[in-house]
Design goal:
Elements (H helix, E strand, L loop, with lengths): L2 H35 L1 E11 L1 H21 L3 H23 L5 E12 L4 E5 L4 E7 L2 E4 L2
Antiparallel strand pairs: 1-2, 2-3, 2-4, 4-5
Helix pairs in contact: 2-3
Keywords: Membrane, Transmembrane, Transmembrane helix
């Protein structure tokens, strides 16, 4: 190959890398601006749940993440919802490992994003188990 062809190929590769980097940067900046533009509220919500109800909460949150991901406009939000859902799994595991407890009381950190036309609310972490319930009654855990 001649030096001229090699030079053209190198310039073309540099151009592709620059365009790819610029595209990634634009998507990143767009996500940052969109995240800033949404109103975010963080609260704590306490729930009493059975193992089945906890499973359903986790499943619903994964489904919400999938819905957001399919729109391809708020991938950062879908990931945030997924992280919360996966952390709920720790409580689900606790219930599975301790069948002597039929109910648990959990204080969940809750995140709510408010857009002009939409409210997206989800549990953002595993929460804190404050009570467990068995045949003997409620037991405080803290």
């Amino acid at each position: 190959m001649s030096e001229r062809k090699i030079g053209k190929r190198i310039k073309f590769l540099i151009l592709l890398i620059a365009i790819g980097s610029l595209t990634i940067y634009i998507f990143y900046i767009q996500g940052v601006f969109e995240k800033i533009s949404l109103e975010k509220q963080e609260t704590v919500e306490t729930k009493v749940v059975s193992n089945d109800e906890l499973y359903q909460i986790r499943r619903n949150q994964y489904e919400l993440s999938d819905e957001v991901m399919l729109k391809k406009t708020r991938i950062w939000l879908a990931k945030e919802i997924q992280i919360g859902a996966s952390r709920i799994g720790f409580n689900f595991d606790f219930m599975t490992d301790h069948p002597e407890y039929d109910l648990i009381e959990i204080s969940f950190p809750t995140t709510k994003y408010i857009d002009d036309d939409q409210v997206i609310k989800f549990f953002s972490d595993k929460g804190v188990i404050t009570k467990v319930h068995s045949e003997e009654g409620w037991i405080l855990t803290y």
